[in-house]
Design brief:
Elements lengths: L3 H4 L2 H7 E3 L6 E3 L9 E2 L3 E2 L5 E5 L2 E4 H10 L6 E4 L12 E4 L1 H6 L14 E4 L2 E8 L2 E8 L2 H16 L10 H5 L1
Antiparallel strand pairs: 1-2, 2-3, 4-5, 5-6, 7-8, 9-10, 10-11
Length: 175
């Protein structure tokens, strides 16, 4: 699949779209055939990202927002800080390496505890973290919450702003 910058230039994107950084809404400025001028009704792709049709292909809306704010295509991934892939407000977007973006991932669906970095260990709970591609055991704790606190502490220490203290109900709690 060709890279965005290989398909069109930032100038092409700026000629086609405008972006409201406070709302994350992209507006079409120019029309070709059936495209309607005005706020774009983005589609959602299979991964939950908003996509916009332009120049014969689909672009992820957050990448268009990046171009419109910075004047260039991102060289890495664009991370949604709050992990809501449909929230394209400028304060929620940051450029990140693939590794940094993955560190800000949510909890796996297979989690039995509902807490990132925590697994049942008999009648207690073990904390784990992945560092440099290797799973590191952080200890065994009496409660899942204690294990999760240790995971969060080590995650912040190693990953800084990209640390994600994900729980299964974090999104609901933020709403």
């Amino acid at each position: 699949m060709p890279l965005d910058r290989d398909v069109c230039s930032p100038a092409d994107i700026r000629a086609l779209f405008a972006y409201n950084p406070n709302t994350g809404v992209i507006t079409r400025l120019a029309s070709k055939r059936t495209d309607t001028i005005g706020p774009v009704r983005p589609l959602t792709n299979g991964n939950g990202y908003l996509v916009v049709y332009a120049m014969g292909r689909l672009f992820r809306a957050h990448r268009i927002a990046w171009v419109l704010m910075t004047g260039e295509w991102p060289t890495h991934d664009i991370d949604h800080i709050n992990r809501d892939r449909t929230d394209n407000r400028w304060v929620n977007l940051r450029e990140a390496t693939r590794g940094q973006n993955l560190r800000n991932a949510g909890i796996k669906k297979s989690s039995g505890t509902g807490l990132k970095g925590v697994a049942a260990h008999g009648e207690r709970f073990a904390a784990y973290i992945r560092l440099n591609g290797k799973k590191k055991h952080l200890g065994v704790f009496d409660t899942a919450e204690e294990a999760h606190q240790e995971y969060c502490r080590v995650s912040r220490q190693h990953f800084g702003e990209y640390a994600s203290p994900a729980t299964s109900n974090q999104k609901e709690a933020a709403a």
